[in-house]
Design a protein that fits this description.
Layout lengths: L2 E6 L19 H7 L6 E6 L12 E5 L5 H12 L5 E4 L1 H5 L1 H4 L5 E4 L6 H9 L6 E3 L23 E4 L2 E2 L10 H5 L4 E2 L2 H8 L6 E4 L9 H16 L5 E6 L7 H10 L1 E9 L3 H7 L2 H8 L3 H10 L3 E8 L7 H12 L4 E6 L7 H8 L29 H15 L2 H15 L2 H19 L12 H5 L2
Parallel strand pairs: 1-2, 1-3, 3-4, 4-5, 5-6, 7-10, 10-11, 11-12, 12-13, 13-14
Antiparallel strand pairs: 8-9
Length: 457
């Protein structure tokens, strides 16, 4: 019986995935396990919840994001030196396969489900190829992932994927390059069947946009939450959606009744020029129509907390962006904030533009991939210095996560959502984000004197 070892490496700098109250299990390895022939013995190492220790294996599969790929390369080399074949996949190696082949024996480009059985067949016959290209999978044939390979007691949140692909193609996002511009849905019956098998009460819907990109997708989402209610499935849901989610009051009501308690929305910016440069036209239209605050309020009044994600550091911004963004966040009563720095990931239009303009900072790869975790400025900005972005970022976060702001925000969540469960979740997420900030090296900048005078306009 061949022994397959699947590894999910972790970046040296820990984030929300390492805080138990907000951790959720990745689905990529469970999907591979589901596509693996039954005569394999499967073992998993997830560095997000346990330290890596060498374990014997006949073949090793490693997945990696850009921020964790350096660690993935290190682990791969350990096994290669012992003559054990290593196969790498995931977004980063799909965008940079030639780099990855310096550190592993074989790479899988794109969605691995369609080619994984072929990889294992070639391994068994001693004919493992250097490169395999996966097609965008027909989600009708997607198996239910093998969650039993994970240490489920650690994860307070379960994970469920209902779709892949995104037609938006935002300049900083690599989803389109990896999963395609065509939005693909799984059959509703299959999703409900899988949902009923997930042991956790709290469920993260990992889709980039649960409502999709058209009327048919919206009806699917409505039918999904209606089925949850009809079958009396008692779960608490966390979903990602576009700001358009707030435009459908009927859907908000059904989703909230089904157990949706938190929605993550990529707001990105309150600067129209920034949204235009990102290619975030859905947001730009709502911002220009002064709909942002109204849509946020609609979601919150339905009993769903609003997690707003913003990205700072674009060429269209100066130092006023930090106070402008903070003012908007406070006045719109966003319950939880995710703030990141603009990061040119391989495979994105932003990556291509920054390289063409010769604005990338000198970096020592592959070690430098450790810094691609959305908290570093890795290129020369147009209007701000790198120092100003770090200071402004720290100033905004320190103000947002201050004790009294957190108290006021928690009371606002309770008053508007009228839900103790929703408020408790918001409070825990705020504590997790605050903890991640205070333990990061960005926190150093928040202690500099004069930040309030410099950034409060």
């Amino acid at each position: 019986m061949p022994h397959l070892l699947l590894i999910n490496p972790s970046n040296l700098y820990k984030g929300l995935g390492n805080i138990r109250s907000t951790a959720f299990p990745p689905l990529n390895l469970p999907y591979l396990a589901a596509m693996t022939p039954p005569h394999y013995q499967i073992e998993v190492i997830d560095e997000n919840i346990e330290p890596f220790m060498y374990r014997k294996a006949d073949i090793v599969g490693i997945t990696a994001y850009t921020a964790s790929v350096h660690r993935a390369y290190q682990i791969s080399q350990i096994y290669r030196k012992k003559g054990i074949p290593t196969v790498m996949g995931g977004i980063h190696v799909s965008m940079m396969p030639e780099e990855a082949l310096n550190y592993c024996d074989s790479v899988v480009i794109g969605e691995a489900e369609t080619t994984w059985p072929k990889v294992l067949k070639d391994f068994e016959s001693g004919q493992l190829k250097k490169q395999y290209v996966g097609e965008w999978a027909d989600l009708k044939n997607l198996p239910i992932p093998r969650r039993d390979i994970h240490k489920n007691p650690y994860y307070q949140w379960g994970s469920l994927q209902t779709s892949r692909g995104c037609p938006m193609n935002c300049s900083f996002c690599s989803v389109t390059a990896f999963n395609g511009r065509r939005f693909r849905r799984r059959p509703l019956d299959s999703v409900i069947e899988e949902l009923e098998q997930i042991p956790q009460k709290k469920i993260l819907l990992t889709d980039d946009n649960i409502i999709g990109y058209g009327k048919e997708d919206l009806e699917w989402t409505r039918a999904f939450f209606a089925q949850v209610i009809e079958k009396d499935i008692k779960k608490v849901f966390f979903a990602q959606a576009s700001i358009q989610f707030g435009e459908d009051d009927e859907l908000l009501k059904i989703a909230a009744k089904a157990g949706l308690k938190i929605v993550f929305v990529g707001m990105e910016s309150v600067n129209p020029k920034t949204l235009q440069s990102y290619g975030k036209n859905v947001n730009l239209k709502r911002l220009q129509q002064n709909q942002y605050k109204k849509l946020i309020t609609s979601i919150r009044k339905a009993g769903i907390l609003f997690l707003g994600a913003f990205v700072v550091g674009s060429d269209e911004e100066d130092i006023s962006v930090f106070q402008t963004t903070l003012d908007f966040i406070k006045s719109s009563h966003i319950d939880v904030l995710q703030l990141t720095k603009l990061t040119p990931l391989p495979g994105t239009r932003l990556w291509k533009t920054i390289h063409e303009e010769n604005r990338m900072l000198e970096q020592n790869f592959p070690q430098a991939w450790d810094d691609y975790r959305f908290s570093r400025i890795l290129f020369k900005p147009a209007q701000m210095s790198i120092e100003e972005i770090y200071e402004g970022y720290a100033y905004l976060k320190k103000r947002y996560f201050s004790f009294w702001e957190t108290v006021k925000r928690t009371l606002s969540t309770l008053a508007t959502t009228k839900s103790l469960i929703t408020t408790a979740i918001a409070y825990k997420f705020n504590l997790s984000y605050r903890k991640a900030f205070r333990e990061s090296d960005n926190y150093y900048f928040s202690k500099r004197p004069g930040l309030k005078k410099k950034y409060r306009h």
